[in-house]
Amino acid sequence: MGLTYVDLKLSSISNGKPAYVVKCLVDTGATDLIVPAKMLKKIGVLPIGTRRYELADGRKKDYRYGLAKIELKGEVTAGRVIFGPNAAEPLLGVTVLESAGFVVDPRNHTLKKIPAIALK
Fold first, then answer.
1. Residue with more model confidence, 10 or 109
2. Region 7-30: what's the mean pLDDT?
3. Measured between alpha carbons, how far is 40 from 12 in angstroms, rounded to an integer?
4. Which of 20, 38, 46, 70 is least surrounded by CB atoms within 10 angstroms?
């Protein structure tokens, strides 16, 4: 199985600063979106809270998070974005992926549009 990358367009939901396009590794083992803090600050995303996350190696770490407008393959959603370390690789977790209406096609290393999002 290979890696899947996608381009996201992030912008603040509270100001008119220009958006930032970021290439993210799709990580179906992750929940939220993590982006280097310096990029979020640049577009005006403000921290609104702190949450504890479990890392891939089992360690637990507290990260600040904010809310951002997220555009993925023409679909727009909004969600929690973690202020990651400035050297962190941006990771796209399943919460944003699914709220934008996509799943991973592991065979082709692409995203596949969900025909309908369940409300039940």
1. 10
2. 91
3. 8
4. 38
Query: Do residues 77 and 8 lie in contact, with contact meaning Cβ atoms separated by under 8 Å?
Result: no
**Is 75 within 8 Å of 27 (Cβ atoms)?**
no
Tallying the residues shown for the chain, one arrives at 120
Could you tell me if residue 39 is left (phi over 0), alpha (psi between -120 and 50 degrees) or otherwise beta? alpha
CA distances from 35 to 56, 67, 105 (A): 16, 12, 23
Q: What percent of the chain has pLDDT over 70?
A: 99
C-alpha dihedral (34, 40, 44, 47), degrees to nearest 10: 50
**62 φ, ψ (degrees, to nearest 5):** -90, 135
Which single residue is written with the structure tokens 């290393």?
Answer: 109
**CA–CA gap between residue 108 and residue 110 (Å, rounded):** 5
Strands 33-36 and 20-26: unpaired
Look-up: residue for tokens 């951002």? 68
35: which 2 tokens? 């982006």
pLDDT tens-digit map of 48-96 = 999 999 988 999 999 999 999 999 999 999 999 999 999 999 999 999 9
